[in-house]
Protein backbone atom coordinates (compact mmCIF):
# COMPACT_ATOMS: atom_id res chain seq x y z
CA UNK A 1 0.00 0.00 0.00
CA UNK A 2 1.37 3.42 -0.90
CA UNK A 3 0.78 6.88 0.57
CA UNK A 4 -1.86 7.77 -2.03
CA UNK A 5 -3.88 4.68 -1.05
CA UNK A 6 -3.66 5.64 2.63
CA UNK A 7 -4.65 9.26 1.89
CA UNK A 8 -7.62 8.16 -0.20
CA UNK A 9 -8.88 5.68 2.38
CA UNK A 10 -8.42 8.01 5.35
CA UNK A 11 -10.18 10.80 3.46
CA UNK A 12 -13.16 8.47 2.99
CA UNK A 13 -13.14 7.68 6.71
CA UNK A 14 -13.14 11.40 7.57
CA UNK A 15 -15.97 12.00 5.10
CA UNK A 16 -17.98 9.24 6.78
CA UNK A 17 -17.25 10.41 10.35
CA UNK A 18 -18.15 14.02 9.56
CA UNK A 19 -20.95 13.07 7.15
CA UNK A 20 -19.46 15.34 4.49
CA UNK A 21 -18.69 13.69 1.13
CA UNK A 22 -17.04 16.92 -0.06
CA UNK A 23 -14.53 17.12 2.80
CA UNK A 24 -11.02 17.67 1.46
CA UNK A 25 -8.02 16.94 3.64
CA UNK A 26 -4.52 18.37 3.30
CA UNK A 27 -1.36 17.30 5.09
CA UNK A 28 -1.57 20.36 7.32
CA UNK A 29 -5.28 19.94 8.19
CA UNK A 30 -5.88 20.00 11.95
CA UNK A 31 -8.89 19.68 14.23
CA UNK A 32 -9.26 23.46 14.18
CA UNK A 33 -9.89 23.34 10.43
CA UNK A 34 -12.91 21.00 10.58
CA UNK A 35 -16.08 22.04 12.44
CA UNK A 36 -17.16 19.34 14.85
CA UNK A 37 -13.73 17.73 15.18
CA UNK A 38 -13.71 17.27 18.93
CA UNK A 39 -12.46 14.51 21.22
CA UNK A 40 -15.43 12.26 20.41
CA UNK A 41 -14.87 12.69 16.67
CA UNK A 42 -11.19 11.88 17.19
CA UNK A 43 -12.08 8.64 18.93
CA UNK A 44 -14.44 7.77 16.07
CA UNK A 45 -11.70 8.54 13.52
CA UNK A 46 -9.12 6.42 15.32
CA UNK A 47 -11.48 3.47 15.81
CA UNK A 48 -12.55 3.59 12.16
CA UNK A 49 -8.94 3.75 10.97
CA UNK A 50 -7.89 0.88 13.23
CA UNK A 51 -10.77 -1.27 12.01
CA UNK A 52 -10.32 -0.35 8.35
CA UNK A 53 -6.57 -0.96 8.23
CA UNK A 54 -6.59 -3.74 10.86
CA UNK A 55 -3.98 -1.93 12.95
CA UNK A 56 -3.67 -0.60 16.51
CA UNK A 57 -2.46 2.89 17.26
CA UNK A 58 -0.72 3.35 20.59
CA UNK A 59 -1.69 6.21 22.86
CA UNK A 60 1.72 7.84 22.40
CA UNK A 61 1.31 7.65 18.60
CA UNK A 62 -2.10 9.29 18.81
CA UNK A 63 -0.80 11.97 21.20
CA UNK A 64 2.03 12.77 18.76
CA UNK A 65 -0.37 13.54 15.90
CA UNK A 66 -0.38 17.24 15.07
CA UNK A 67 -2.02 17.13 11.63
CA UNK A 68 -3.68 14.82 9.15
CA UNK A 69 -0.31 14.44 7.43
CA UNK A 70 1.09 12.96 10.65
CA UNK A 71 -1.84 10.55 10.70
CA UNK A 72 -1.15 9.49 7.11
CA UNK A 73 2.50 8.79 7.91
CA UNK A 74 1.72 6.89 11.11
CA UNK A 75 -0.80 4.65 9.35
CA UNK A 76 1.54 4.17 6.38
CA UNK A 77 4.31 2.89 8.64
CA UNK A 78 1.93 0.33 10.13
CA UNK A 79 0.53 -0.99 6.86
CA UNK A 80 3.79 -1.07 4.90
- Termini distance? 6 Å
Radius of gyration: 11 Å
Contiguous helical run count: 4
* Structural class by SSE content: mainly alpha
Low-pLDDT segments: none
What order do the SSEs take from the amino end to the carboxyl end, as H and E? HHHH
Tell me the fraction of residues in β-strands, as a range: under 5%
The rough form would be described as: globular
The biggest sheet, with number of strands, parallel, antiparallel or mixed sense and barrel status, is: none
Averaged pLDDT: 97
Number of strands: 0
> Helicity range of the residues?
55-70%
Protein architecture, described:
With 80 residues, the chain is mainly α. It has helices at 3-17, 39-53, 59-63, 68-79. 59% of the residues lie in helices and 0% in strands. The protein contains 4 helices and no strands. Helix 1 (3-17) crosses helix 2 (39-53) and helix 1 (3-17) packs across helix 4. The chain starts with a helix and ends with a helix.
Summarize the entry for a quick read.
The protein has helices spanning 3-17, 39-53, 59-63, 68-79. It is mostly helical and 80 residues long.
